Amino acid sequence: MRNVTLTQYLVEQERSLSGVGPELRLLIEVVARACKAIGHAVSKGALADVLGGAGTDNVQGEAQKKLDVISNEVLVEANCWGGCLAGMASEEMDDPLPIPSQYPKGRYLLLFDPLDGSSNIDVNVSIGTIFSVLECPPGVTDPTEADFLQPGTRQVAAGFAVYGPATVLVLTLGNGTAGFTLDREVGSWILTQPRIRIPEQTREFAINMSNARNWPAPVTRYIDECVAGKTGPLGKDYNMRWVASMVADVYRILSRGGVFMYPADAKHVEGRLRLMYEANPMAFIVEQAGGAASTGRQRILEVQPAKLHQRVGVILGSREEVERLAGYYAEAG
Ligand code: AFP
Predict the structure, then answer these.
(1) Residue 1 has pLDDT above 70, yes or no
(2) Rg (CA), the chain
(3) If we measure between CA atoms, which residue out of 77, 118, 113, 75 comes closest to residue 92?
(4) Is 65 helix (H, G, I), strand (E, B) or coil?
(5) pLDDT digits (tens, 9 = 90+) for 95-135
(6) Within a domain: residue 135?
(7) In 10 A of CB 216, how many CB atoms?
(8) Which of 272, 277, 280 to mutate to test the pocket of ligand 1 (most atoms within 8 A of CB)?
(9) Which atom of ligand 1 is nearest to the CA of 116?
(10) Which domain holds residue 236?
(11) pTM score
């Protein structure tokens, strides 16, 4: 079968989906091209001066890696001239970035975590880029933070790239979730998973076990049952994975099922992961692949944001597992 490129996939989505017009198609293509450039920079590793700290902190007060800053610059420079956006927001920038006055503005807002998994950069473990697309409120040409604060249900597109053994891109436009693999020889994103479906059941969970003493009771109950395996109420043994790069853990779950948990706990009272450019895009992608995504107490996509960089508890993956854990939260009251 002839390879279907990202461009052809987007053109065909444009024909079949009313919400996908030429502007959104161009935006996705530009972001995907930026991900290729970021993946190339990441792949140089120690051969280029891209590893280690940048000597600066981001809005979260976290030390930035050089590749965090480089990745952010790649995405900002790629998306400022195209005329698709009214504004951008990034984990690496305190405030939303307006489109420079010399360029036309468009109808979309782009939010991104330019390089997720930064703690893995210097140890050569898969990392990636996460992005989310919202519509700018009608009539707004200079969006403020408030214009970005839309619940995840309002996303028109979301995606992430994983810079791993293969460079892959996962994308949803609201009509299912598709996967692409980068053909490095040609430089094209090739459609390799036309319609990703997450198995409803799983035997694999992903959580940072070092936080166990901080977990809320429903999480402790669920993990204890998974660890009890055949000897416990679940009657089957479980496996555990934790890459500490959300993009890698979520890609594994999209590929073979599983449940990913970073719940709000005694140490991370709001949660650790950011709502607008990590949890929301991943929740949209997972739901479109037949999975579920919850804070434990509500559907992530229905959380009404109050701050651009706010954090949220995340439980996502195989639908039956997420629903069981949400049931434990409900029982706990
Ligand atoms: P960094 O980008 O700071 O490495 O954080 C990555 C992340 O946001 C997410 O990708 C991981 O799932 C999670 O944090 C890992 O958190 P722990 O380091 O606490 O396990």
Answers:
(1) no
(2) 19
(3) 113
(4) strand
(5) 999 999 999 999 999 999 999 998 899 899 999 999 999 99
(6) yes
(7) 16
(8) 272
(9) 2
(10) 204-332
(11) 0.97
Task: Output the CA 117–ligand 1 centroid distance in Å.
Answer: 5
> Which DSSP string do the residues of 238-286 spell out, in sequence order?
-EEE--S-HHHHHHHHHHH--EEEE---SSSSS-SEEIIIIIHHHHHHH
Same domain? 177 vs 295: no
What are the Cα distances from residue 288, in Å, to 7, 36, 172, 197? 20, 24, 7, 8
Number of domains in the chain: 2
| 244 and 177 in a common domain | no
| For the chain, counts of helices (H) and of strands (E) | 8, 17
Asked if 209 and 327 sit in the same domain, the reply is yes
Is the domain of 182 the same as that of 213?
no
Q: What is the CATH number of the domain that holds 24?
A: 3.30.540.10
Reported as a single tens digit per residue, the pLDDT across 261-294 is 999 999 999 999 999 999 999 999 999 999 999 9
Same domain flag for 158 and 236: no
Is the domain of 84 the same as that of 229? no
